[in-house]
Amino acid sequence: MWSNLPFDVLAKIFSFLSPDSLARARSTCRHWNACVDTYPIATSFILLSLHHRPWFLALPTRNRGQHCYVHNPVIDNWHLLSLDFLPDPVRPVASIGALILVRPTNCTVLQLALCNPFTRQFRNLPMSNISRTNPAVGVVTLDSVQHSPNLNFRVYVAGGMSEAPRGGAMYELKLEMYDSMDDTWHVVGFVPTEFAVRLTVWTPNESVYSNGVLYWMTSARAYSVMGYEIDGHRWRGFGVPMADKLEFAALLCRNGGLTLVGGASEGEACIWELKEGDRWGLIEKVPMEMGRKLLGGKRSWGSIKCVGSEEAIYLYKELGSGMVVWREMEEKARWAWFWIEGCYSIGGNQVPNLPIKGVFLHPNLFPFTF
């Protein structure tokens, strides 16, 4: 019966499979493999992302070989992916659909690229108009990307150091934007000097986009937030709760709004949401027993990192330390806390406990046209 199903019906069924299940399904027979190739849109990340949670991808923060680790939340399993197709070691900047925007770790001048670790695709973006080191990077995924297999996004680059006219270096005040629609960089505005300095020196993390504004968190104690309103070309800054006491702080986007996660010395980790008038409202606290387990007996939150999506927030440390997860339940009416074990071994082989940088993505096996 299965071999006689029309391709459009079979493709609809395949759209409900997770990426690993789809990979096994297409290897079953020629008929199923041809179905996936004939109806790629029906099995692309557009539909897969509607039915499945994003996967957590972890890249070692030190050059420990060209590979990454991926956690499948459907079956709670870890996988090892080779990244030997990349020309250089990279760090993730942001996920864009089923792709990851990355930057090389062995180059001081900003260079961005797109890759799909599952299909082993890679492509460098064009170099920006201004050569700069250590700038802040922000990504805006346009709404149409959810309705088309083509990539539709913009990358904003602010701050950083560039060459001064008479030699030496200066803080760069021009704001540049890469548009995937024309594959070109444009100068779209200017950054106030104070913000350019903060973006260069105290912004180790990439941005969060929410309601028309790109936000960056500064790491200088006390923590603060910088925002760039894209349509109005306006910059503004404001504080965060417990700014001088937080040992780590991260910005996320949850339910379309700006969310802050932070942990204080010998205290709890909390989650706030931004309200009208740049006011923060406390919405949740990390359960104390899970927090102690994540910290491994230590009292400092300084080594904790955080990554989030619309439906989940992960707090993590090293690869084998486990993760505390606050996740939306399937009924969409409530969120619950979970513990995910760290990656100790894969296929019977022990995995070293490495420091990592995590990012969410919806994996896809369909080749993209960059």
TrEMBL record:
Coiled coil: none annotated. It holds the Pfam family F-box-like. CDD domains: F-box_SF. Residues 1-48 form the F-box domain. This is F-box domain-containing protein.
